[in-house]
Amino acid sequence: MNMLFLQELFNNITQRDALLRRRHPETLTPDHGQLVNACQKLLESDGEASSIALASRALAIYQRLSAAEKSRFFARLTADFAADPGPIDAAYLAYQEVRDNPSLQRLFEACEPRRQELFRRLNLASDGTYELVKMREDLLALLREQPELAAIDDDFAHLFGSWFNRGFLMLKRIDWNTPASILEKIIRYEAVHEIQDWDDLRRRLDARDRRCFAFFHPAIGDEPLIFVEVALHKGLPSRIQPILSGESSVKRPGKSPGKSSAEKGIDDPEDADTAAFFGISNCQTGLRGISFGNFLIKQVVQELSQELPQLKYFVTLSPVPGFAQWLQEQRDDEQLPASMRKSLKGLETPGWHQDKPREEELKAIIRPLAARYLVEEKNRHGLPLNPVARFHLGNGAELHRINWLGDISAKGFKQAAGLMVNYLYVLDDIERNHENYTAKATVACSNEVRDLARRARKMAKGETTK
After folding, report:
1. CA 390, CA 410: separation in Å to the nearest integer?
2. Cβ distance 408 to 353 under 8 Å?
3. Quick one: 61 exposed, middle or buried, by C-beta within 10 A (0-12, 13-18, 19+)?
4. How far apart are CA 206 and CA 259, in angstroms?
C-alpha cells in the first residue's frame, strides 16, 4: 500500500473540510455547545478519514470561541468527559475476584477519562498537536481562578509527557543562517535577557565564540520548544553585560574552578576552556511542566564536547529571580539585626553600586545572605525556594559561585540586587548530585558558597565575621 498516497488523501480531506467549514454558518458565531457536540461526534467516529475531518472541525470551532466560551467549554470537559463511575465500579469488582492482569487492564481502561481519548483524536488533525498545546495554554490561564479544571490539566500533562518524550525531540543549532521565521521566534521567546533587535540577535548568534541550540518536535514544525544560548570563554564568566554586548575581552579577573585562569572572552573557539550557558528559554507556555531543559543541557554538552574537546568546564551564568523580594521580606519582618537592615537601606539609593564604600558594605552583607537563600531557604515541598536553583540542582549541577554585580541592568537590580550565579556541571558528579537532590533535597555547592552560608548564619545572630 502506498502510504504517501494515503497521507495525501487524508490531507486533502482535511483541507476540503476546512474549506467547507469556512462556508458553514455555525463557525461564524460559535459557542461552547457546538464544540461539545463536535467533540461527541468525534468520539463516536470509527473511521480514520472521518475522524481527521471531525477533529479539524472541532479545533476550528475552538479557535473561534471567545474567552468566556472557552471557559464554559473547559467546564463541560470536566463534567461531561470524565470517566464513568459505573464501568469503574464493575471493573474494580471484577478485579477483586480474580486479581489477574487482564482484569487490571480493564480497570485501567475504565478509569481513563474520556477527555484523554478526545485529545488523542483531536491530535489527528493537521497541526493538531500545536493546537492542543495552545489549548492547554488557555487552560493554564484559568486555573488560578478555576482550580476545579485541574483534572483537565492532569490529562494534558499525562499525554504531553508521552508525545514530547525525549525520543521525539530534535536538536538543531541556531545560527545566522537559520530561516528568518525561526529567528523571529527566538527574538520573541527569549525570556532571560531580552533581545533588543536584529543587530542584538546577530551579536549573539554570528560570533565565533557563540552557540545556540534548540529542541524541535516533528509535529509542530518550526516552533522551538526550548533553546539555550552559549558563550565560549576562558575561565568562568561572572558578568552578563560583556557577553550581551559582544565584548571580546573581560578585564575584570575571575576564577575558574582551578583558580588559575583569568576570565576573558576569546576570538578563536579553540582557545576556550569554558562553555557558559547564559540563557535558557522555554518557548511554549502550553508545555509548562514538561521537562526539556535537563535533556537539552546534557545533549548540548555532548555536542560541544565533540566539537571542542579541549573544553573543561560547563557552567551557567544564571539570574536569581525572587532574591530581592526575599531580601525585602527579611527586612520587613525584622529577622535581620538592626545594623544589617540599616545597611540594606542603601539599596534604595539610585546608583548605589557606583559608590565604592557603600558597594563594599552591601557586598559584605548581600553575598552571604544570597548563599543562605539559595542553600537553606526551602519551599513547602522541601526544595530550594529559588526556581532557577531547583532546575539546575535537579539536573545535577553544583551551586558554584555567587557573582557580585553580575547583572547591572535595571532588571538585574530589581530581581536580585545585581547578583548572578554560576551553576557548574561536572560530568563525573552529575548523576550523584542528581540522586542526592532527588532523594534528600541536598544542595551540592562549592566550599566558597558553603562558607558564605555559614557567615550568613553568624551575621543573623549578630556575630562578627571575617
Report:
1. 24
2. yes
3. buried
4. 30
Q: β-strands 398-403, 420-425: how paired?
A: antiparallel
Pairing label, strands 264-265, 226-234: antiparallel
Residue with cell 576564577: 255
Separation of alpha carbons 393 and 444, rounded Å: 7
DSSP at 257: T
- DSSP class per residue in 58-103: HHHHHHT--HHHHHHHHHHHHHHSS--HHHHHHHHHHHHHH--HHH
Check pLDDT > 60 for residue 216. Answer: yes
Mean pLDDT (the chain) is 89
**For range 438-447, the mean pLDDT:** 95
Identify the three-state secondary structure at position 156: helix
Q: What residues form DSSP beta bridges with 214? A: 172, 227
Which 8-state DSSP code applies to residue 263? Answer: P
Helix or strand holding residue 120 (H, E)? helix 114-122
How would residue 194 be classed by pLDDT, with cut points 50, 70 and 90? very high
Query: 399 — phi, psi (to 5°)?
Result: -70, 105
Residue 451, pLDDT > 90, answer yes
Q: What are phi and psi of 164, to 5 degrees?
A: -110, 35
